[in-house]
Design a protein that fits this description.
Elements lengths: L3 E7 L8 H12 L5 E7 L22 H11 L3 E5 L10 H12 L9
Parallel strand pairs: 1-2, 1-3
Length: 114
Amino acid sequence: MKALRLAIIIGSTRPGRNGEAVAKWVYDIAQKRTDAEFELVDIKDFNLPLLDEPVPPSMGQYSKPHTKTWAAKIGSFDGYVFSSRPSITTASPARSRTRSIFCSLSGITRPPVS
């Protein structure tokens, strides 16, 4: 049986973000496991603007190269762990929510784990 592939997603793009240190800490601990493969994925590396696609992500009809790249990356995993600081409203930051929507509604049926 093939090992599960799990993404540990750094869910903030802010300078001085704390989520990066937390994600790396989780990754270091996860690497000790032998029953799954883990990869750090930093949303900052994808330069995704907020909601710039002309149709909803659930349609899977991406027109922007950055969205296609993101969807392909996220689609390569079996599960996700998001590392992000909650906003003032105790919800995840807007950019993290956008990326969560892109990954959960882009034809991927696996629910995010946060």
